[in-house]
Structures are given as structure tokens and as C-alpha cells.
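Input.
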Amino acid sequence: MRLIIQRVQKASVAKVETNEIVGRIDKGLFILFGVKKADTVKQAEVLAEKVIKLRIMADDKDKMNFSIKDVESQILVVSQFTLYANTKDGNRPSFIDAALPDDAVKIYEHFIQKLKSLGVKVETGSFGDYMKIDCVLDGPVTIILEN
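Output.
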């Protein structure tokens, strides 16, 4: 699994086809979530626990001292199979390392449920749909987590 975590002032995601906003948060974390072949729900749980504990939220001196729970903020998670793009052998990305949609959606949904069970408000994108993302980055702070 590969997560791109960005601290945001606000973020939203809408389906391009309908322009319907499907997820929206104020101050918190925006996470792009990619699943590769052979990833497991157990790995998703470990990463969810790590995300909750990450001290990347700013204190009153703009130091990263707080976790998402400490500041009672929110998380917006969007599936992103292109995080496993491989351009080693050319200019057109290959996505053969990305998990198949049926496998990826199970792990994605498990990750979200784990975050919620840890006491955080979580919004999501629409799995498998073409989406428009609107983000106001905070910092900017961008962290990459993998397992």
C-alpha cells in the first residue's frame, strides 16, 4: 500500500460526471490511497493506526506536535491506483503492479472502517470513478507512507 498524506486547510472531491461532491472536510488530512497486488487488510490496519498517530498537525507555534485525533480534525481518503504507475520501460505508465479493483476496494473500505473505529471522522471519494479534487494545502506538509 502507498499513501500520499497531505495536511489541508480544506478539501473536497466530486464525481466529474455529475459534479456531485461526495466527500468534504475542513482542516485535516487528505489521503491518496493506492493498493498493490498482494496487499492485505492487516497491512491496511497497520497503516490506519500509523496515520492516526502521526504527529503532523501544527501547534500554535506551527510545529508538528499533534496527531489528527489531538486536534479533532478530519480525514478525506481517495482511492488512487495510479500511485503504482510504472514508467521504467517507456513513457506510457503501466499499472500491472496495482491491485485489481475487486481486491483494492475491499482493502480501501477496510482502511476507512479502521480509521473510523479509531475515532476519526472520515469522508471518502467514490471508488473507481473519475473525480475532481479541490484542496487547499496547509504548510505544505506531504508525507508518503508505504508498507
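Residues 6 and 133 are 13 Å apart (CA to CA).
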